[in-house]
């Protein structure tokens, strides 16, 4: 049956599937007997920052939207998130061992957890899975990029409009706030920040306070034992049970409240096809929490928004192109970067005076800003290392410029993404890390952290994959994929591999800018 015929005859399609809960449909799901077919005007793939912004603004404009998310809806499932010291169900995406950046000594029963890791030859990329995407697992650092760098990276965007409108808007929507200095000054859980800042000053570096989406009023109550603990109970990269304003509590919550959004979790899109009438067909697998197939589904839609995150969006485009001749522009996959991520650390940090603290909040609030140094420009997060005991170790995630970009392609034979990225891409980042650690150790004592990383340098650790579908290169000025009439990319892949700070504020602002203009241009009429 061809698509048009099917839509004519399908009961599901005719009645609209959004609110349909027929026994027939669920029986088919359980027995996994036949494919189910669904039609929707607008489909968004992925519920991270780009997907959540798109969903809210379209729903507010009165559009019915279906959002397909491969991860679990944790709020609906009512399964608690695990903490760093006791990894459980939420700690990894279908793995039998934990996948944190270090100390992976924990065996797991595979479950559709919140944290995933993609392993390439020279780099490992961590990602969030679940309704809320990366907001479930990230450290919540809500950093607005430096205006000069934003202008350098996006010369065609109206920076004044971004700094006067889009950035303030997203900080408000994401509920960004700043820790109280008095609380920070005395709280034992922030000794690592105080030590980090004192040491940085002694070494001649400038520090900055970093805003966050974690509710610091809640954290103060945690500290006083008035509410259940989350950041002060080593919860973060496997999800926070309290305190963190992840997207399910901000953009997505508002979008659901419009009554126009349906979120289908545990729905993984496999490939996309372009139909003759310029609509799209999506081949989707619904899975259960052990990763087993529940149903094969086929969705058709007039308008498609790809918000599957940098790696997810590239996977869908390049795989569909390799397997079913889906048309993709030649710039798709190009101009990819790790946002200059380079992890490093120091051991023997103040070992005689309590080190960096036995108890640590998981929420970073301090950073070292060396961006204006022409020889060694970098920003680094003073990161927590909550191991349940004092390890006298300081951890840093450096964010550098990306002098040499990488490229993502698809290997048809192995049916997997290939990332053209090796040590040559991180030469300058390593140099900056070496300079930083030497200067810190010279002023304060300590050694490069051989305990945590190979030779003390984690060149292969990436939390911020960006680019590959760059705004204005692979897409038009508002994210419409070149060569397509009804396909839009709205996520981190629009940013050309670097933004100089932690990226989600920028991803959210770019998504606001694009969707506002796409709606204004009547693209979703
Ligand atoms: P993202 O949030 O990754 O969402 C994509 C969604 O699409 C996910 O929910 C996927 O499960 C889903 N998906 C993918 N493929 C499919 C498919 N085929 N079918 C259905 N669904 C699919 O995209 N950034 C900051 O600014 N501050 C921080 O403090 C920070 N800390 C971080 C800490 C960690 C451990 C990690 C991993 C990241 C951190 N980041 C941080 C990065 C930030 O979370 C990331 O840049 C954004 O989440 C990317 O947003 P996107 O909208 O691009």
Automatic annotation (TrEMBL):
Pathway: Steroid metabolism; cholesterol degradation. InterPro entries: Cholesterol_Oxidase, FAD/NAD-bd_sf, GMC_OxRdtase_N, GMC_OxRtase_C. Residues 123-335 form the Glucose-methanol-choline oxidoreductase N-terminal domain. Its cofactor is FAD. One of its GO terms (biological process) is cholesterol metabolic process. It comes from the Bacteria. Keywords: Cholesterol metabolism, FAD, Flavoprotein, Isomerase, Lipid metabolism, Oxidoreductase, Steroid metabolism, Sterol metabolism. One of its GO terms (molecular function) is cholesterol oxidase activity. The keyword Flavoprotein applies. Its EC number is 1.1.3.6, 5.3.3.1. Residues 462-511 form the Glucose-methanol-choline oxidoreductase C-terminal domain. Gene3D superfamilies: Cholesterol Oxidase, domain 2, FAD/NAD(P)-binding domain. Belongs to the GMC oxidoreductase family. PANTHER family: CHOLESTEROL OXIDASE, FAD-DEPENDENT OXIDOREDUCTASE 2 FAD BINDING DOMAIN-CONTAINING PROTEIN. This is Cholesterol oxidase. It comes from Chryseobacterium culicis. The lineage of its organism: Bacteria, Pseudomonadati, Bacteroidota, Flavobacteriia, Flavobacteriales.
């Amino acid at each position: 049956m061809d698509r048009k015929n099917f839509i004519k005859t399908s009961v599901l399609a005719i009645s609209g599937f959004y609110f349909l809960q027929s026994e027939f449909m669920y029986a088919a799901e359980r027995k996994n007997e036949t494919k189910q077919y669904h039609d929707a005007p607008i489909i968004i793939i992925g519920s991270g920052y780009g997907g959540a912004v798109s969903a809210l603004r379209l729903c507010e404009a009165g559009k019915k939207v279906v959002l397909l998310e491969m991860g679990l809806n944790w709020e609906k499932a009512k399964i608690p998130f695990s903490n760093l010291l006791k990894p459980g169900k939420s700690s990894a995406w279908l793995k039998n061992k934990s996948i944190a950046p270090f100390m992976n000594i924990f065996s797991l029963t595979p479950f559709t957890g919140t944290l995933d890791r993609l392993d390439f030859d020279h780099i490992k990329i961590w990602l969030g899975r679940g309704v809320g995407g990366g907001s479930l697992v990230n450290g919540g650092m809500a950093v607005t990029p430096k205006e000069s760098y934003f202008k350098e990276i996006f010369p065609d965007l109206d920076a004044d409009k971004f700094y006067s409108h889009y950035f303030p808007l997203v900080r408000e929507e994401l509920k960004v706030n700043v820790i109280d200095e008095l609380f920070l000054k005395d709280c034992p859980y922030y000794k690592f920040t105080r030590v980090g800042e004192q040491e940085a000053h002694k070494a001649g570096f400038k520090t900055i306070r970093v805003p966050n989406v974690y509710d610091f009023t809640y954290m103060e109550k945690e500290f006083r034992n008035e509410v259940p603990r989350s950041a002060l109970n080593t919860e973060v990269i496997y999800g926070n049970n309290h305190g963190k304003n992840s997207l399910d509590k901000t953009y997505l919550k508002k979008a659901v409240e419009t009554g126009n959004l349906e979120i289908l979790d545990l729905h993984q899109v496999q490939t996309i096809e372009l139909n003759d009438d310029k609509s799209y067909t999506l081949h989707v697998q619904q899975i259960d929490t052990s990763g087993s197939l529940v149903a094969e589904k086929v969705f058709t839609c007039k308008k498609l928004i790809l918000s599957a995150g940098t790696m997810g969006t590239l996977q869908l485009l390049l795989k569909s192109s390799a397997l079913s001749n889906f048309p993709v522009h030649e710039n798709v996959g190009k101009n990819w970067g790790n946002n200059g991520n380079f992890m490093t650390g120091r051991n023997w940090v103040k070992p005689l005076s309590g080190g960096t603290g036995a108890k640590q909040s998981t929420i970073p609030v301090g950073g070292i800003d060396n961006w204006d140094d022409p020889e060694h420009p970098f920003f680094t997060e003073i990161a927590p290392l909550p191991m349940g005991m004092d390890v006298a170790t300081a951890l840093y995630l450096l964010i550098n410029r990306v002098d040499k970009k990488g490229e993502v392609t698809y290997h048809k034979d192995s049916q997997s993404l290939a990332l053209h990225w090796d040590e040559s891409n991180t030469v300058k980042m390593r140099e900056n890390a070496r300079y930083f650690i030497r200067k810190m150790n010279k002023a304060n004592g300590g050694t490069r952290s051989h305990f945590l990383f190979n030779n003390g340098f984690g060149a292969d650790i990436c939390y911020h994959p960006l680019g590959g579908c760059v705004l204005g290169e692979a897409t038009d000025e508002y994210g419409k994929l070149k060569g397509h009439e009804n396909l839009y990319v709205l996520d981190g892949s629009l940013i050309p591999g670097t933004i100089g700070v932690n990226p989600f504020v920028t991803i959210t602002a770019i998504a606001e800018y694009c969707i506002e203009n796409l709606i204004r241009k009547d693209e979703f009429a």
